[in-house]
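User: Predict the structure for this protein chain, please.
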Amino acid sequence: MTPLLEMRDVHVTYATAAGPLPAVRGVNLSLEPGESLGVAGESGCGKSSLAATVLRLQPPNATVRGSVLVTGKDVQTVDWGQLRALRWGEAAMVFQGSLHSLNPVQRVGDQITEPIRLHDGSVSPARASERVGQLLEQVGLPAASARTYPHQLSGGQRQRVMIAMALACRPRLILADEPTTALDVMVQAQVLDVLTGLVRGLELGLLLISHDLSVLGTTCDRVLVMYGGRVVEQGAATAVFDHPQHPYTRALARAFPRVGDADARFSPAGLAGDPPDPRNLPSGCTFHPRCPRAIDVCSTHEPPVRWPEPDRPVECVRVEGAETAPGTAVAAGR
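Assistant: Here is the predicted structure, written as structure tokens:
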């Protein structure tokens, strides 16, 4: 079966006045129908740059190397007509800020109708309106919401509209870039339930980006953890969240309180320091300046990929397990 999404040794570099800025460095991943894949990491680790390559949404100053395949088509090489059909029709994105993504002077129903009519000119206005009502109900909103303006809806309702819009042309792949940012915990859970329910019910593929590892641990099937543009750990979501192997993954897991853990509830652990400047990455392991377990070799040699268990590659010299060649990029796959 052809994966819905496959990335092979993807690099994204931005040309800036201060010199090249490598945002993504050698990422590999695959995503199958009915599967949800989470991408975790702090701001600046390359998550959004990675997602932008899927629909060729990177800015003009970006250079992409490697292959980005959506249902077997390399989106970096297809012509404009094929790319236009792929966007919305095969893959669609739920962006982070609904107020910035929705037009404030158009009713939400008209905004959902637009991609439907553009991608299928044979659809009548009445049929498109009927489809909009079905989509809104599918994400837990009344069909009458189509007549409202974005400012008349709550943050959670606007995110549901964004999900409905992403589903407008029946794509097989949904990309969600921090879709629950600025939402309270209860609304966040509701929005995530909508997304995961659609993945199961419609056999979609979901690529969910978040800085919150606890969200991905309870929502996704698999998780990739990125740092400095690289995938440093991956595996089954529950295993990565409950038993992290890489020191950075452990820090992410400890940064958020857990239900039932009294100590973590009142004093979640932080991580000292800041993510590295992509223009001036540290030698050796990119994480070593912040790592509490770093040893001398960490500052001089790129970390090997070790496998503490099957389907669980980790880029860290301190992890026990079978080892691949030092410096080999983590290959995200099944």
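The two ends are 13 Å apart (CA to CA).
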